[in-house]
Amino acid sequence: MDSYQKWDVIIIGGGLAGLTTALHLASQNISVCLVEKNEYPNHKVCGEYVSNEVLPYLQYLGIDPFSVGAKQISKFEITDTNGNPITAHLPLGGFGISRYTFDNMLFEALKNKAKVLFDTVEKVIFEENQFRVTTQKKTALLADFVVGAFGKRSNIDTFLNRKFMQKNSPWLGVKAHYEYDFPSDSVALHNFNGGYCGLSKTETGAVNACYLATLKSFKKYGDIETFQKQELSKNPFLDEFFNTAKPLFNKPLAISQISFRKKKPVENHIFMVGDSAGLIHPLCGNGMAMAIRSAQLFSEMFLKLFKTKNYDRALMEKRYASQWHNEFDSRLKTGRYIQQILMHPFASKVGFAMVKTFPSLVPALIEKTHGSPQI
């Protein structure tokens, strides 16, 4: 095994949260090593809509998503399982951009400022007030701090024996890009029995279709194409989409075991950011922004305390956990509440009827799952 290389911070995982954290810290002369298993660019199962709440922060980091063609989005449409629509204006608005382009954009900004190691972390050991991290390729790393940005679920979650990994999750996510005539200023959420599907345009003009479904509803059909034709297409909007849209991927991307169970923002002295700390239900359309915002929360806290050179690890952990809960607990709770309503046929019917009567409820609920722009 190689001799250990020492860093101030090791970041495990190079998605939005990991890349943003690395870019922020490295820009402030913190020595950073980011470990990511896949080289860029690559596609990921993701809704690919980002709330404008993170635009000022991205601009602070020198990242302009519109420079690569991100679509400005201001309108929202939701349909019930029968295709009855409700439209609303998005209070903050957002933008559509593929993870293929967005992650790569952040990587290009980072690669000359920090060490980016394409490898898979196998072990993270904390002892004598520092971390030892070892990888599949036998690289050995030392750091005072580790940031967990390894996403929805990872072998590291298993290694750390995190509680949410002990129970199976009933959710499956599927995503693909399509050529389709869809308004570039809109995001749509179409419900079907067992889940919901989001549609929005990306920077290439392709429409990203990403849906979440219960494994129970999916297993009746056995494969993605049959499921889409026979279950999703019961919603007339999805029927029209999947019958006329031209697929741009050889096959859709899919992930299973997506867990929305509660997680801790700090575990085993590792600071969790993005989906590693908590996953909001995709129907809220705010997972990407939350990942970036959690990176901002951690980075600002870390820089303020670490640069004193007399940092108190326990204080840092306590402060970050408190800030994370204050920022996100209410959003996650609202997301779980909306999800429960939409997945229950009678409650969903009542909910849609209420929103039809009181249309201002839609932007009010959206605001409860989003934050305010901050820098």
Spatial shape: globular
Q: What is the CATH topology?
A: FAD/NAD(P)-binding domain
CATH-defined architecture:
3-Layer(bba) Sandwich
Strand content: 25-35%
Report what the structure shows.
Residues 7-296 form the FAD-binding domain. InterPro entries: FAD-bd (IPR002938), FAD/NAD-bd_sf (IPR036188), Geranylgeranyl_reductase (IPR050407). Pfam families: FAD_binding_3. This is FAD-dependent oxidoreductase. 34% of the residues lie in helices and 28% in strands. α1 (16-26) packs parallel to α3, α1 (16-26) packs parallel to α8 and α8 (287-306) runs antiparallel to α9 (313-343). The protein has eleven helices and 17 strands. A hairpin with a 4-residue loop joins β8 and β9. It is an alpha/beta fold and 375 residues long. Strands 3, 4, 5, 10, 11, 12, 13, 14 and 15 form a nine-stranded mixed β-sheet that branches.
Question: What is shown here, in short?
Answer:
The chain has 375 residues and is of the alpha/beta class.
Q: What features would you highlight for this structure?
A:
single chain, 375 residues, alpha/beta, FAD/NAD(P)-binding domain, 9-stranded mixed beta sheet, 8-stranded mixed beta sheet, 17 strands, 34% helix, globular, FAD-bd, FAD/NAD-bd_sf, Geranylgeranyl_reductase
